[in-house]
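Quick start: read one record
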Amino acid sequence: MEAPHNSPAAERAAGTAHGVTRDDTVTVTLAVESPEQMQALGRRISGVLRPGDLVMLTGELGAGKTTLTRGLGEGLGVRGAVTSPTFVIARVHPPLGGGPALVHVDAYRLGGGLDEMEDLDLDVSLPESVVVVEWGDGKVEELSDDRLRVLIDRAVGDTDDERRVVTLAGVGARWAGLCAESWAPWEAAGA
């Protein structure tokens, strides 16, 4: 029997399927079977990212948000090991080549909205960087009308199940081209 996937991320994603939701958010749902596949998904997503993109990651503790971001960093070709910025709030990974920097933020300990995050100067970093915010729901939406929400759902409770359900929700005109078919090759290949 499959373990239930009923985290808050799943509840927020409920009612969406491949396609366009009632609020014009384009969604794609993928199954991820291992941390290696989560990192591979990050590399895959990095191929469509460009400077100015805001990526918001949502999921329970241990869902794979930092693992996905590690893959994003690899795909973007940035300097430095991508690790959780929990204790420093934000890390900037400069590009090794001509691509954008990766700004990796952990907003878990930040209670307020954008007011509390102003000291991070994310609005200044956004135009020339890819900004990835873990736990950003309700805190950073004002940074951009266009954003990619990544909801990672994992089995809850006492389990070592590595399976995840990842929902990519493209919000705004920037992500209007995101469709299930564009991600099908990754899903079929499993990495």
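The mean pLDDT is 77.
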